[in-house]
Amino acid sequence: xxxxxxxxxxxxxxxxxxxxxxxxxxxxxxxxxxxxxxxxxxxxxxxxxxxxxxxxxxxxxxxxxxxxxxxxxxxxxxxxxxxxxxxxxxxxxxxxxxxxxxxxxxxxxxxxxxxxxxxxxxxxxxxxxxxxxxxxxxxxxxxxxxxxxxxxxxxxxxxxxxxxxxxxxxxxxxxxxxxxxxxxxxxxxxxxxxxxxxxxxxxxxxxxxxxxxxxxxxxxxxxxxxxxxxxxxxxxxxxxxxxxxxxxxxxxxxxxxxxxxxxxxxxxxxxxxxxxxxxxxxxxxxxxxxxxxxxxxxxxxxxxxxxxxxxxxxxxx
Length: 317
Ligand code: EPU
Prior knowledge:
Elements: H1 3-10, E1 15-21, H2 23-26, E2 35-41, H3 44-56, E3 61-64, E4 70-72, E5 77-83, E6 92-94, E7 102-106, H4 111-120, E8 123-124, H5 136-141, E9 145-146, E10 149-150, E11 155-161, E12 167-171, E13 177-178, E14 181-182, E15 188-195, E16 197-198, H6 201-218, H7 244-250, E17 257-258, E18 261-263, E19 271-273, H8 279-297, E20 306-308
Parallel strand pairs: 2-5, 3-5, 4-20
Antiparallel strand pairs: 1-2, 6-7, 7-15, 8-16, 9-10, 11-12, 11-15, 13-14, 17-18, 18-19
Uridine-diphosphate-2(N-acetylglucosaminyl) butyric acid binds at residues 146-148, 215, 218, 227-228, 231-232, 243-246, 249, 267-269, 304.
Protein backbone atom coordinates (compact mmCIF):
# COMPACT_ATOMS: atom_id res chain seq x y z
CA UNK A 1 0.00 0.00 0.00
CA UNK A 2 1.43 3.42 -0.93
CA UNK A 3 2.19 6.03 1.74
CA UNK A 4 -0.63 8.46 0.89
CA UNK A 5 -3.12 5.59 0.86
CA UNK A 6 -1.91 4.27 4.19
CA UNK A 7 -1.79 7.73 5.77
CA UNK A 8 -5.30 8.58 4.57
CA UNK A 9 -6.49 5.35 6.20
CA UNK A 10 -5.82 6.94 9.61
CA UNK A 11 -5.94 10.66 8.73
CA UNK A 12 -9.31 11.31 10.40
CA UNK A 13 -8.20 9.85 13.76
CA UNK A 14 -6.50 11.56 16.73
CA UNK A 15 -3.19 9.91 16.01
CA UNK A 16 0.42 11.09 15.49
CA UNK A 17 1.69 9.62 12.23
CA UNK A 18 5.37 9.16 11.28
CA UNK A 19 6.96 7.41 8.33
CA UNK A 20 10.30 5.59 8.53
CA UNK A 21 10.26 6.02 12.29
CA UNK A 22 13.58 5.04 13.96
CA UNK A 23 12.17 2.48 16.35
CA UNK A 24 15.33 0.34 16.38
CA UNK A 25 17.46 3.06 17.92
CA UNK A 26 14.66 3.78 20.39
CA UNK A 27 14.69 0.17 21.59
CA UNK A 28 16.94 -0.89 24.47
CA UNK A 29 19.47 -2.32 22.02
CA UNK A 30 19.72 1.21 20.54
CA UNK A 31 20.18 -0.36 17.14
CA UNK A 32 18.07 -1.65 14.24
CA UNK A 33 15.88 -0.26 11.49
CA UNK A 34 12.76 1.81 11.06
CA UNK A 35 9.02 1.25 11.06
CA UNK A 36 7.44 2.03 7.70
CA UNK A 37 4.57 3.61 9.59
CA UNK A 38 4.41 4.50 13.29
CA UNK A 39 1.12 5.54 14.90
CA UNK A 40 0.67 7.08 18.33
CA UNK A 41 -3.05 7.08 19.11
CA UNK A 42 -4.44 9.45 21.72
CA UNK A 43 -6.61 6.97 23.58
CA UNK A 44 -8.03 3.43 23.66
CA UNK A 45 -11.02 4.16 21.40
CA UNK A 46 -8.69 5.51 18.68
CA UNK A 47 -6.51 2.45 19.12
CA UNK A 48 -9.56 0.20 18.73
CA UNK A 49 -10.36 1.92 15.43
CA UNK A 50 -6.76 1.42 14.23
CA UNK A 51 -7.04 -2.28 15.09
CA UNK A 52 -10.27 -2.60 13.08
CA UNK A 53 -8.89 -0.72 10.06
CA UNK A 54 -5.66 -2.72 10.02
CA UNK A 55 -7.68 -5.89 10.15
CA UNK A 56 -10.00 -4.76 7.33
CA UNK A 57 -7.07 -3.84 5.08
CA UNK A 58 -4.86 -6.79 6.14
CA UNK A 59 -2.09 -4.44 7.35
CA UNK A 60 0.18 -6.14 9.88
CA UNK A 61 -0.08 -4.43 13.29
CA UNK A 62 2.60 -4.56 15.98
CA UNK A 63 2.56 -2.93 19.39
CA UNK A 64 5.79 -1.48 20.74
CA UNK A 65 6.11 -0.97 24.49
CA UNK A 66 9.35 0.38 25.93
CA UNK A 67 11.26 -1.63 23.31
CA UNK A 68 12.93 -3.39 26.21
CA UNK A 69 12.52 -6.92 24.93
CA UNK A 70 12.67 -6.16 21.24
CA UNK A 71 15.19 -6.37 18.43
CA UNK A 72 14.27 -4.60 15.18
CA UNK A 73 16.10 -5.97 12.15
CA UNK A 74 18.36 -3.50 10.33
CA UNK A 75 15.98 -3.52 7.33
CA UNK A 76 13.13 -2.37 9.56
CA UNK A 77 9.57 -3.56 9.67
CA UNK A 78 6.49 -3.25 7.46
CA UNK A 79 2.83 -2.55 8.25
CA UNK A 80 1.84 -0.45 11.24
CA UNK A 81 3.70 -0.11 14.54
CA UNK A 82 1.73 1.44 17.37
CA UNK A 83 3.20 3.04 20.49
CA UNK A 84 1.02 3.60 23.52
CA UNK A 85 3.07 6.44 24.98
CA UNK A 86 0.56 9.28 24.95
CA UNK A 87 -1.17 10.40 28.14
CA UNK A 88 -4.31 8.38 27.42
CA UNK A 89 -2.37 5.15 27.97
CA UNK A 90 -0.21 6.06 30.95
CA UNK A 91 -2.59 7.02 33.73
CA UNK A 92 -1.99 5.64 37.23
CA UNK A 93 -5.11 5.62 39.38
CA UNK A 94 -4.74 4.81 43.06
CA UNK A 95 -7.74 3.50 45.03
CA UNK A 96 -9.07 2.00 41.81
CA UNK A 97 -12.77 1.12 41.93
CA UNK A 98 -12.81 2.84 45.36
CA UNK A 99 -10.57 0.18 46.94
CA UNK A 100 -7.50 1.24 48.90
CA UNK A 101 -5.54 -1.89 47.95
CA UNK A 102 -5.94 -1.53 44.17
CA UNK A 103 -4.07 0.57 41.60
CA UNK A 104 -5.04 0.81 37.93
CA UNK A 105 -2.10 1.45 35.57
CA UNK A 106 -2.23 2.16 31.83
CA UNK A 107 -0.40 -0.26 29.53
CA UNK A 108 1.93 2.47 28.28
CA UNK A 109 3.21 3.41 31.75
CA UNK A 110 6.82 2.61 32.54
CA UNK A 111 7.07 -0.31 34.96
CA UNK A 112 10.10 0.91 36.95
CA UNK A 113 8.78 4.45 37.30
CA UNK A 114 5.39 3.14 38.44
CA UNK A 115 6.82 0.81 41.05
CA UNK A 116 9.13 3.53 42.40
CA UNK A 117 6.23 6.01 42.65
CA UNK A 118 4.15 3.46 44.55
CA UNK A 119 7.10 2.54 46.78
CA UNK A 120 7.60 6.19 47.77
CA UNK A 121 4.13 5.99 49.34
CA UNK A 122 4.93 2.62 50.93
CA UNK A 123 2.74 0.69 48.49
CA UNK A 124 4.17 -2.78 48.03
CA UNK A 125 3.31 -5.23 45.26
CA UNK A 126 5.36 -4.47 42.17
CA UNK A 127 8.80 -4.17 43.81
CA UNK A 128 9.97 -7.68 42.75
CA UNK A 129 10.02 -6.20 39.25
CA UNK A 130 12.65 -3.62 40.21
CA UNK A 131 15.10 -3.18 37.35
CA UNK A 132 13.01 -5.07 34.78
CA UNK A 133 12.82 -2.70 31.81
CA UNK A 134 9.27 -2.81 30.43
CA UNK A 135 6.02 -1.04 29.83
CA UNK A 136 3.15 -2.32 31.97
CA UNK A 137 1.48 -3.86 28.89
CA UNK A 138 4.63 -5.62 27.72
CA UNK A 139 5.33 -6.91 31.23
CA UNK A 140 1.81 -8.37 31.52
CA UNK A 141 1.96 -10.02 28.09
CA UNK A 142 5.06 -12.01 28.95
CA UNK A 143 4.65 -12.21 32.73
CA UNK A 144 7.92 -10.37 33.22
CA UNK A 145 9.92 -11.11 36.32
CA UNK A 146 12.86 -12.97 37.74
CA UNK A 147 14.12 -14.60 40.88
CA UNK A 148 12.22 -12.14 43.11
CA UNK A 149 8.76 -12.67 41.60
CA UNK A 150 6.72 -12.04 38.47
CA UNK A 151 4.18 -9.37 37.60
CA UNK A 152 1.36 -11.91 37.45
CA UNK A 153 1.63 -12.35 41.24
CA UNK A 154 0.31 -8.80 41.73
CA UNK A 155 -2.44 -8.76 39.08
CA UNK A 156 -6.06 -8.22 40.14
CA UNK A 157 -7.50 -7.69 36.63
CA UNK A 158 -6.41 -6.94 33.06
CA UNK A 159 -8.27 -5.08 30.31
CA UNK A 160 -7.32 -5.98 26.75
CA UNK A 161 -8.46 -5.30 23.19
CA UNK A 162 -9.27 -8.32 21.08
CA UNK A 163 -8.49 -8.67 17.37
CA UNK A 164 -11.78 -6.92 16.49
CA UNK A 165 -10.96 -3.95 18.71
CA UNK A 166 -13.43 -4.98 21.44
CA UNK A 167 -12.43 -4.28 25.06
CA UNK A 168 -12.65 -7.11 27.59
CA UNK A 169 -11.82 -7.16 31.29
CA UNK A 170 -10.33 -10.34 32.75
CA UNK A 171 -10.37 -10.83 36.52
CA UNK A 172 -7.28 -12.55 37.92
CA UNK A 173 -9.09 -15.87 38.37
CA UNK A 174 -9.55 -16.11 34.58
CA UNK A 175 -5.87 -15.48 33.92
CA UNK A 176 -3.03 -17.94 34.18
CA UNK A 177 0.46 -16.52 34.56
CA UNK A 178 3.22 -19.01 33.86
CA UNK A 179 6.94 -18.64 33.29
CA UNK A 180 7.18 -15.81 30.75
CA UNK A 181 3.70 -16.36 29.34
CA UNK A 182 0.02 -15.84 30.07
CA UNK A 183 -3.14 -17.38 28.68
CA UNK A 184 -4.28 -13.92 27.53
CA UNK A 185 -4.99 -14.35 23.82
CA UNK A 186 -6.16 -10.81 23.11
CA UNK A 187 -3.33 -9.02 21.41
CA UNK A 188 -3.29 -5.63 23.15
CA UNK A 189 -3.26 -4.86 26.87
CA UNK A 190 -4.94 -1.53 27.73
CA UNK A 191 -4.51 -1.43 31.51
CA UNK A 192 -4.03 -3.64 34.53
CA UNK A 193 -5.21 -3.37 38.13
CA UNK A 194 -2.64 -4.45 40.72
CA UNK A 195 -3.06 -5.47 44.35
CA UNK A 196 -0.91 -3.31 46.61
CA UNK A 197 -0.35 -3.30 50.33
CA UNK A 198 0.54 -0.38 52.58
CA UNK A 199 3.83 -1.11 54.35
CA UNK A 200 6.67 0.84 55.94
CA UNK A 201 8.20 2.91 53.08
CA UNK A 202 11.71 2.67 54.56
CA UNK A 203 11.67 -1.14 54.72
CA UNK A 204 10.29 -1.22 51.18
CA UNK A 205 13.05 1.08 49.94
CA UNK A 206 15.65 -1.22 51.56
CA UNK A 207 14.14 -4.24 49.78
CA UNK A 208 14.21 -2.40 46.43
CA UNK A 209 17.84 -1.43 46.98
CA UNK A 210 18.74 -5.09 47.66
CA UNK A 211 17.10 -6.23 44.43
CA UNK A 212 18.78 -3.44 42.44
CA UNK A 213 22.18 -4.27 43.98
CA UNK A 214 21.85 -7.96 43.08
CA UNK A 215 21.13 -7.08 39.45
CA UNK A 216 23.89 -4.51 39.30
CA UNK A 217 26.42 -7.02 40.59
CA UNK A 218 25.40 -9.82 38.20
CA UNK A 219 24.21 -8.08 35.01
CA UNK A 220 25.87 -5.78 32.45
CA UNK A 221 23.44 -2.93 33.04
CA UNK A 222 25.69 -0.30 31.45
CA UNK A 223 25.81 -2.08 28.07
CA UNK A 224 23.23 -2.03 25.29
CA UNK A 225 21.09 -5.16 25.52
CA UNK A 226 17.50 -6.24 25.95
CA UNK A 227 18.13 -8.03 29.23
CA UNK A 228 18.12 -11.80 28.95
CA UNK A 229 18.07 -13.02 25.34
CA UNK A 230 16.70 -16.52 26.06
CA UNK A 231 14.09 -17.98 28.36
CA UNK A 232 15.38 -20.27 31.05
CA UNK A 233 14.89 -23.77 29.59
CA UNK A 234 13.63 -26.87 31.36
CA UNK A 235 16.42 -29.17 32.46
CA UNK A 236 15.76 -32.52 30.72
CA UNK A 237 17.12 -34.38 33.76
CA UNK A 238 15.37 -32.63 36.68
CA UNK A 239 12.34 -31.17 34.85
CA UNK A 240 13.06 -27.82 36.57
CA UNK A 241 13.96 -24.55 34.87
CA UNK A 242 17.66 -23.82 34.80
CA UNK A 243 19.42 -20.54 34.12
CA UNK A 244 20.08 -20.11 30.39
CA UNK A 245 22.92 -17.79 31.46
CA UNK A 246 24.55 -20.56 33.47
CA UNK A 247 24.25 -23.04 30.55
CA UNK A 248 25.70 -20.57 28.04
CA UNK A 249 28.48 -19.77 30.52
CA UNK A 250 29.24 -23.47 31.11
CA UNK A 251 29.36 -23.90 27.32
CA UNK A 252 32.31 -21.49 27.32
CA UNK A 253 30.55 -18.84 25.27
CA UNK A 254 31.10 -15.71 27.39
CA UNK A 255 32.91 -13.16 25.25
CA UNK A 256 31.93 -14.87 21.98
CA UNK A 257 31.60 -12.14 19.36
CA UNK A 258 30.03 -11.76 15.92
CA UNK A 259 30.79 -8.32 14.50
CA UNK A 260 29.37 -5.74 16.89
CA UNK A 261 27.53 -8.24 19.14
CA UNK A 262 28.99 -10.08 22.13
CA UNK A 263 27.91 -12.64 24.72
CA UNK A 264 28.37 -10.59 27.89
CA UNK A 265 31.33 -11.67 30.00
CA UNK A 266 29.28 -10.64 33.07
CA UNK A 267 26.03 -12.58 32.48
CA UNK A 268 26.01 -15.00 29.56
CA UNK A 269 22.28 -14.64 28.82
CA UNK A 270 22.83 -10.98 27.92
CA UNK A 271 23.82 -10.36 24.30
CA UNK A 272 25.19 -6.85 24.09
CA UNK A 273 25.80 -4.69 21.06
CA UNK A 274 28.34 -1.94 20.50
CA UNK A 275 27.13 1.59 19.94
CA UNK A 276 26.32 1.96 16.23
CA UNK A 277 26.34 -1.84 15.85
CA UNK A 278 24.05 -4.01 13.74
CA UNK A 279 20.89 -5.83 14.76
CA UNK A 280 21.87 -8.58 12.31
CA UNK A 281 25.00 -9.29 14.36
CA UNK A 282 22.84 -9.82 17.46
CA UNK A 283 20.49 -12.14 15.54
CA UNK A 284 23.41 -14.16 14.15
CA UNK A 285 25.10 -14.35 17.54
CA UNK A 286 21.84 -15.56 19.11
CA UNK A 287 21.54 -18.26 16.44
CA UNK A 288 25.14 -19.31 17.02
CA UNK A 289 24.61 -19.55 20.80
CA UNK A 290 21.48 -21.67 20.23
CA UNK A 291 23.38 -23.96 17.86
CA UNK A 292 26.32 -24.48 20.21
CA UNK A 293 24.11 -25.11 23.25
CA UNK A 294 22.03 -27.58 21.22
CA UNK A 295 25.16 -29.40 19.97
CA UNK A 296 26.98 -29.33 23.31
CA UNK A 297 24.19 -29.84 25.83
CA UNK A 298 21.23 -31.14 23.82
CA UNK A 299 19.15 -28.21 25.12
CA UNK A 300 16.98 -26.11 22.81
CA UNK A 301 17.05 -22.46 23.89
CA UNK A 302 14.03 -20.32 23.10
CA UNK A 303 14.40 -16.60 22.48
CA UNK A 304 12.77 -14.32 25.04
CA UNK A 305 13.59 -11.22 23.01
CA UNK A 306 11.15 -10.69 20.15
CA UNK A 307 12.69 -10.03 16.73
CA UNK A 308 10.76 -7.93 14.22
CA UNK A 309 11.67 -8.46 10.56
CA UNK A 310 10.14 -7.94 7.17
CA UNK A 311 8.18 -10.81 5.61
CA UNK A 312 10.36 -13.26 3.78
CA UNK A 313 13.02 -13.06 6.47
CA UNK A 314 12.71 -15.71 9.16
CA UNK A 315 9.88 -14.34 11.29
CA UNK A 316 9.49 -13.05 14.80
CA UNK A 317 9.47 -15.21 17.91
N1 EPU B 1 24.95 -17.89 36.24
C1 EPU B 1 26.18 -18.29 35.78
N2 EPU B 1 26.72 -17.64 34.69
C2 EPU B 1 26.07 -16.61 34.07
C3 EPU B 1 24.79 -16.21 34.55
C4 EPU B 1 24.25 -16.88 35.64
O1 EPU B 1 26.80 -19.21 36.30
O2 EPU B 1 26.61 -16.07 33.09
C5 EPU B 1 24.41 -18.56 37.44
C6 EPU B 1 24.38 -17.59 38.62
O3 EPU B 1 25.58 -17.53 39.27
C7 EPU B 1 23.24 -18.13 39.44
C8 EPU B 1 22.30 -18.76 38.43
O4 EPU B 1 23.06 -18.94 37.22
O5 EPU B 1 23.71 -19.15 40.29
C9 EPU B 1 21.06 -17.88 38.17
O6 EPU B 1 21.48 -16.60 37.68
P1 EPU B 1 20.58 -15.29 37.88
O7 EPU B 1 20.28 -15.07 39.31
O8 EPU B 1 21.24 -14.19 37.13
O9 EPU B 1 19.21 -15.68 37.25
P2 EPU B 1 18.80 -16.09 35.76
O10 EPU B 1 17.90 -17.29 35.90
O11 EPU B 1 20.01 -16.23 34.88
C10 EPU B 1 16.62 -14.67 35.79
C11 EPU B 1 15.91 -13.83 34.77
C12 EPU B 1 16.47 -12.42 34.76
C13 EPU B 1 16.39 -11.82 36.15
C14 EPU B 1 17.19 -12.72 37.10
C15 EPU B 1 17.18 -12.23 38.53
C16 EPU B 1 15.29 -15.25 32.87
C17 EPU B 1 15.60 -15.64 31.47
N3 EPU B 1 16.12 -14.39 33.44
O12 EPU B 1 17.97 -14.84 35.32
O13 EPU B 1 15.64 -11.67 33.91
O14 EPU B 1 16.91 -10.50 36.16
O15 EPU B 1 16.59 -14.04 37.08
O16 EPU B 1 15.89 -12.08 38.99
O17 EPU B 1 14.28 -15.70 33.42
C18 EPU B 1 15.26 -10.82 31.73
O18 EPU B 1 14.24 -11.49 31.72
O19 EPU B 1 15.56 -10.04 30.80
C19 EPU B 1 16.16 -10.96 32.85
C20 EPU B 1 17.37 -10.43 32.86
